[in-house]
């Protein structure tokens, strides 16, 4: 578009914006099983109003906006208390899990730079199930990720495998509580002992689990300790915009003490401009997400969260049982909270996701690795639990439809990818192949099964190249 010569009316603008959503999946009807965490209309309304009431306040400078300092310290302290940190624990609000994780990695890198200048190529030990945000942090911050395979039955990393991956260059150990992909908790206590023995920092990614698991524990569920009560855990990330049900743009990164956190903060007085002190990545930042988070924590209260967690766990139990009882489907591992994935040994799960999508459901495909099968992921939340029975019914019907339809020839695709990789110019050959799969141009694909099949057959590095090219084409 061009900026219009004359401005449009408010009505035109809002109607047009609404119309842009016409092809979006319908999260409001609870049909999207990831991405959106909906606490219901009343809490969402409170969050919206609180968010808008701080839209223009700028978190850049707490001396001008003490309200920002108050909101941030309140929310951070509430989450630290929930995660059983003591008075020495500290933290910051960030824009999301990715930023929290990047800051934890930056903190580890800069602490190592100060205390271990002999380490010139820092490494962090990452379970295969750790979120891609760690790989992004590694990429941005020049820290080498050292990948550790997981147990293919439980989908948890083994502490002894983490131990074997430690080198003199290691600056950080990472584990998840839980991992997004299969929703299982790594052996946090064991890895904490390892971190202490080796005098290493240890970050627990509780982006999805921090709040939900803590309320499960308070409700009496058997949840292994994953928080600041575990000796050796030095930092934790917990997203408010996931199972805290806050509006997007809010996570918290926490440290056991200020001695560690100080490496996160950046200051600059080198320029002709104003003095800059930034604890997080952003400099100017809206007070909206902070106010939204403050509002939802106070509106729901412990009782409100516990009620949600109870209902969501009940819905998850039904869903997991229903999926396991569906011929051809099997839930992977033993998911501990309300996120899990399932595989099929009889049908192509990517085709199943496409069939479900024709009925308005969004279920996320996940690729295979050398030890784990391709699968579909479901995150259950308050906004989707009323659809558990409807989802199960459609899943069963769609499994039958896929059984009757022409299967995608995975073997042939793998053979073609293999042949392209052997050709004199693998990237050119594969680009042609990707085009035939619909992974080029400026249009969004309507069906994903074939594309996923091709991507799953590619080696990770090439797959990443194709995805980058895809987005490079898609956006102006
Ligand atoms: C375990 C885990 N860590 C980190 C992230 C990244 O969070 P965000 O998307 O808020 O950046 C996610 C996102 O789903 C996650 O599940």
Give the key terms:
single chain, 476 residues, alpha/beta, four-stranded antiparallel β-sheet, globular, binds pyridoxal-5'-phosphate
Summary?
With 476 residues, the chain is of the alpha/beta class. The protein has helices at 10-20, 41-53, 66-82, 97-115, 132-141, 159-165, 188-198, 209-219, 258-261, 288-324, 349-358, 388-404, 410-422, 426-437, 449-457, 460-474; strands at 90-94, 123-127, 144-148, 170-176, 201-205, 235-239, 251-255, 266-268, 276-278, 330-331, 339-343, 364-366, 375-379. Residues 96-98, 101, 131, 133, 176, 180, 205, 207-208, 239, 251 line the site of pyridoxal-5'-phosphate.
Tally of strands: 13
Secondary structure: helix percent? 40-55%
Q: What ligands are attached or bound here?
A: pyridoxal-5'-phosphate
- Beta-strand fraction estimate: 5-15%
Report the sheet with the most strands, covering strand number, pairing sense and barrel closure.
7 strands, mixed
Could you say which structural class the secondary elements and strand pairing correspond to? alpha/beta
Strand order of the largest sheet: 1-7-6-5-4-2-3
Order of helices and strands: HHHEHEHEHEHEHEEHEEHEEHEEHHHHH
Write up this protein:
The longest helix is centred in the middle third of the chain and has 37 residues, at 288-324. A hairpin with a 7-residue loop joins strand 10 (330-331) and strand 11 (339-343). It is globular, with a radius of gyration of 23 Å. The strands form 3 sheets. The protein has a 7-stranded mixed β-sheet, with helices on both faces. A 4-stranded antiparallel β-sheet has the order 10-11-13-12, with helices on one face. Strands 8-9 form a two-stranded antiparallel sheet. It is an alpha/beta fold. 45% of the residues lie in helices and 12% in strands. The mean pLDDT is 96. Residues 96-98, 101, 131, 133, 176, 180, 205, 207-208, 239, 251 line the site of pyridoxal-5'-phosphate.
């Amino acid at each position: 578009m061009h900026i219009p010569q004359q401005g449009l009316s408010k009505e035109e603008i809002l109607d047009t914006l609404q119309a842009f959503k016409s092809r979006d999946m319908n999260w409001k009807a609870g049909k999207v099983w990831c991405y959106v965490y909906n606490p219901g209309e009343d809490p969402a309304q409170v969050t919206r109003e609180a968010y808008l009431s701080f839209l223009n306040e700028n978190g850049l400078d707490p001396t001008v906006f003490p309200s920002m300092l108050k909101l941030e310290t309140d929310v951070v302290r509430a989450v630290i208390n929930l995660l059983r940190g003591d008075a020495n624990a500290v933290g910051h609000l960030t824009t999301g899990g990715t930023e929290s994780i990047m800051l934890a990695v930056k903190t580890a890198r800069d602490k190592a730079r100060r205390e271990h200048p002999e380490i010139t190529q820092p490494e962090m030990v990452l379970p295969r199930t750790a979120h891609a945000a760690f790989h992004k942090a590694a990429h941005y911050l020049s820290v080498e990720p050292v990948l550790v395979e997981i147990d293919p039955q439980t989908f948890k990393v083994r502490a002894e495998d983490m131990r074997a991956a430690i080198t003199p260059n290691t600056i950080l150990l990472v584990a998840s509580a839980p991992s997004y992909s299969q929703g299982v908790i790594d052996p946090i206590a064991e890895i904490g002992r390892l971190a202490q023995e080796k005098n290493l920092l240890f970050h627990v990614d509780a982006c999805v689990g921090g709040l939900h698991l803590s309320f499960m524990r308070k409700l009496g569920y058997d949840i292994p300790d994953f928080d600041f009560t575990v000796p050796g855990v030095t930092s934790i990330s917990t997203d408010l915009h996931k199972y805290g049900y806050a509006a997007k743009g809010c996570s918290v990164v926490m440290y056991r003490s200020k001695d560690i956190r100080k490496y996160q903060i950046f200051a600059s007085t080198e320029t002709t401009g104003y003095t800059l002190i930034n604890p997080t990545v952003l400099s100017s930042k809206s007070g909206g997400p902070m106010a939204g988070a403050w509002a939802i924590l106070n509106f729901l209260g412990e009782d409100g969260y516990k009620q949600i967690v109870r209902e969501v766990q009940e819905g998850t139990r039904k869903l997991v049982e229903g999926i396991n009882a569906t011929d051809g489907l099997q839930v992977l591992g033993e998911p501990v909270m309300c996120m899990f994935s399932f595989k099929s040994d009889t049908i192509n799960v990517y085709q199943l996701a496409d069939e479900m999508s024709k009925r308005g459901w969004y279920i996320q495909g996940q690729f295979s690795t050398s030890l784990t099968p391709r699968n579909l992921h479901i995150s259950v939340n308050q906004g989707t639990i009323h659809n558990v029975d409807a989802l199960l019914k459609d899943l069963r019907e769609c499994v039958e439809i896929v059984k009757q339809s022409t299967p995608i020839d995975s073997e042939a695709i793998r053979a073609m990818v293999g042949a392209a990789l052997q050709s004199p110019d693998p990237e050119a050959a594969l680009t042609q192949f990707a085009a035939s799969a619909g992974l080029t141009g400026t249009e969004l694909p309507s069906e994903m099964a074939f594309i996923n099949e091709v991507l799953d057959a590619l080696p990770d590095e090439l797959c990443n190249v194709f995805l980058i090219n895809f987005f490079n084409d898609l956006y102006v």
